[in-house]
Amino acid sequence: MTIAIDQGRTKHASRDVTAWDRLKVNRNWLGFWFMLPAMAFLILFLAYPLGLGIWISFTDARIGRVGNFIGLENYEWLWDDSIFWLSVFNTLLYTIAASVFKFAIGLYLALLLNENMPFKAILRALVLIPFIVPTVLSALAFWWIFDAQFSIISWSLKQMGVISQNINFLGDVYWARFSVIFVNIWRGIPFVAITLLAGLQTVSPSLYEAATIDGATRWQMFRHITYPLLTPIIAVVMTFSVLFTFTDFQLIWAMTRGGPVNATHLMATLSYQRAIIGGVLGEGSAISNAMIPFLLAAIMISWFGLQRRKWQQGESND
Amino acid sequence: MNDFTRRTLLQGGTALAAAGALTGPALFDFAKAWAQTAPWKAEKDAKLTLMRWKRFVPAEDAAFNEMVAAFKAATGTDMNVFSESFEDVQPKASVAANTGSGLDLAWGLHTLPQLFPTQVLMMNDVADYLGKKYGGWTDAAAATCKQGNNWLGIPVATIGGYLNYRKSAVDKAGFKEFPKDFPGFLEMCKALKANNTPAGFALGHASGDANSWLHWVLWGHGAYTVDKDDKVIINSPETMKALEYCKALSDTFIPGVASWNDSSNNKAFLAGELYCTGNGISIYVAAKDDPTKKDLAEDTYHALWPVGPVGHPTELQLCVPILAFKFTKYPNAAKAFIAFMLEKENFDKWLTGARGYLTHTLNAYDASPVWTADPKNYVFSQASKRALPASGIGTPGEKAATAIADFLVVDMFANYCTGREDAKGAIAIAERQLKRIYR
């Protein structure tokens, strides 16, 4: 080694090893170039719009016109805006109520579909239908089902003599919230059920065999084998489910447009109404940015949950 | 205000056959002759890009496209026409105005030219030419396009909305004639409810229907969102009265109006469950086109909005003005096209194609055949005369447009009528939002 360097020095006395020479053989440098396309993609389509959205929320921008910087004015305004807080309440109610039911019914369905039964494959495929139908189409179908004058539910109940007047599904505050949450649950169950079913299939049957030999009951098997092994998947599924529900737009827009009297306005729909329809981009961005803390919290919970080794290995959480 | 159902879209096409005297070669001959004598000569190799709102009546679209083709042939101007939905027209026009490219002409809604008055081509000469030739412009239409003495655009037409009612039900309620004032209208709605033939007006986020009838109630009581200097004056005794009146009225409505969108009243009326509502002529047209609804069509009549305590008509109608951008390379071609659109040879046929859906803004077209072809169309011929701009008595422009788009007035009434807020609370919410918009 030393000899080689010495020879080099004598031959090219004037030339040292430059930074460029070092760079040429640097693996990190090469790696950077390989990473660049992905990075450019992320910056262009994720970081830049997000940053722009945050910047716009600090301005009084309108559609087609660059705004002036106005600091936190948009946020201060929203802080005192009863409709904004109503939309926050609606969004939380919508997300929590829908997610709880989606999880409970989804898990139940997954367990059911995991059993051996006739027509198993067809049944599993059928469960996916609400998920496959485009959201706007199913929302329109439900819009008819819940129509003030032509609701099939009201009609049937009237024929049976249970009620004398149509149920005001989308015109009454509580019925309207119930209706949109119901549709969201209907639409979201297949995703939860099928993903949990996939998780259930990875649980080794030998564990159940061993438990059976030990005399475990069905409940004990679920509690101490199925549930712990399923936990990582539950965490992922529910994170996604919460994110999708929290940012839902199509269902509400197609069914109620946020009505009656803003009782079903979610943060996403209010943001759209103010930013795009009303043209006040700054305020609309501020509303959508207000969703970020909630979404970050949801991601953090599952992230730190997943980081726990014991969880990942499917042991109990002591 | 004026949703056509899908059925109307399909069936409206038949109207085209009845529409025009001047089609094909005759129209081209007229167009050529017109181009020779018109005050505006299209630039050589002119090319115009025009954005318009998406049509509801196929026959209207067909008549429009024929006119475009004739203009093209007569002047050699290359025309590129595309449509956008109602909600997208304004944002796209704003972007064009602020980037200075993309469009030459924009045909939009309400007071579009007032949104960017410095970016439009002044139309004073076109307005003078047409006004002189065709008996002058209606005041309401002129207000949507005029800034001082300048014309920022040309009010092509108004999409009218009026009361649609079943004559048999109104007769049975004891009203030989449709009421002409607010108390009479309330009495009639009460009687309709008592007979189980209720009226109904949208209280939901229906951009057209809900805005039009609630602004009518508000303005009819002499209450406005802002005064002529754009100072917010919604918090007034008149607004209180409007809220009380509206509450009494909404108690007589068919259940479910808080969930209604623009098409809900069309459906309910055509199904025979709703006996009086505010809408464009679309309900009647749909009933006429449906052989199974012959009786309903015969029983359907139209009435003007009753006049409120202020003593003059206070209607919110949907004006559709056209504008040319200042940055267009072919200002003469743009002006020529706009003038050409509104010439009698084109416009009569176009109005007929629209079947009462569009109302003229030039007085001479009072005599247009569409208004006499069916006596039930006549009411809609008044839409350009009895309206206030979307801003009420305030300055037409962007702020008024935002207030309408954000349903401020609609939500104020809905909050009170559904019992979510008391009158003070409902007004306070609207006032706070208005103050921000008009800051």
Between the first and last Cα atoms of chain B, what is the distance in angstroms? 30 Å
According to DSSP, the number of beta strands of chain B is 13
N→C terminal distance of chain A:
57 Å
Oligomeric form:
heterodimer
Average predicted local confidence, pLDDT of chain A:
87
Q: Helix tally of chain A?
A: 17
The CATH superfamily of chain A appears as MetI-like
Number of strands of chain A: 0
Main structural class of chain A: mainly alpha
User: How large a portion of the residues of chain B is in β-strands, by DSSP E?
Assistant: 5-15%
**Proportion in helices of chain B:** 40-55%
Let me know the largest β-sheet of chain B.
6 strands, mixed
Question: Any idea how many domains of chain B?
Answer: 2
Q: Strand content of the residues of chain A, in percent?
A: under 5%
CATH topology of the largest domain in chain B: D-Maltodextrin-Binding Protein, domain 2
Annotated CATH architecture of chain A: Orthogonal Bundle
Enumerate the spans of chain B where pLDDT stays under 50 for 5 or more consecutive residues.
1-21
